[in-house]
């Protein structure tokens, strides 16, 4: 399984929803809370091509996007394939 990184903030309902979906899929992920680790916010923005909202989700080196993007991948049946790679 490719490593998964999700940049979050503690109060974000979209972050919670994205993490819930990943847990339902049995996927382990590294969570980086940019509310607590503010120095990592710049890293997230750079990796996400300028996007500054949370969550920002990466599977391997692929930038998936945010929560809506993650759920859209799942609806299309592509998330399981990405997680299995």
TrEMBL record:
Gene3D superfamilies: Glutaredoxin. GO terms for biological process: cell redox homeostasis; cellular response to oxidative stress. GO terms for molecular function: glutathione disulfide oxidoreductase activity. Keywords: Cytoplasm, Disulfide bond, Electron transport, Redox-active center, Transport. The keyword Transport applies. Residues 4-64 form the Glutaredoxin domain. CDD domains: GRX_GRXb_1_3_like (cd03418). GO terms for cellular component: cytoplasm. Belongs to the glutaredoxin family. Has a glutathione-disulfide oxidoreductase activity in the presence of NADPH and glutathione reductase. Reduces low molecular weight disulfides and proteins. This is Glutaredoxin. It comes from Enterovirga aerilata.
């Amino acid at each position: 399984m490719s490593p998964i990184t999700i940049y979050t903030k503690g109060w974000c309902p979209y972050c919670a929803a994205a993490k819930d979906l990943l847990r339902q899929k049995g996927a382990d992920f590294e969570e980086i809370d940019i509310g607590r680790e503010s120095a990592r916010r710049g890293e997230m923005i750079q990796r996400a091509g300028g996007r500054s909202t949370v969550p920002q989700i990466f599977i391997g080196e692929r930038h998936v996007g945010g929560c809506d993007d993650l759920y859209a991948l799942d609806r299309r049946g592509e998330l399981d394939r990405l997680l299995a790679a």
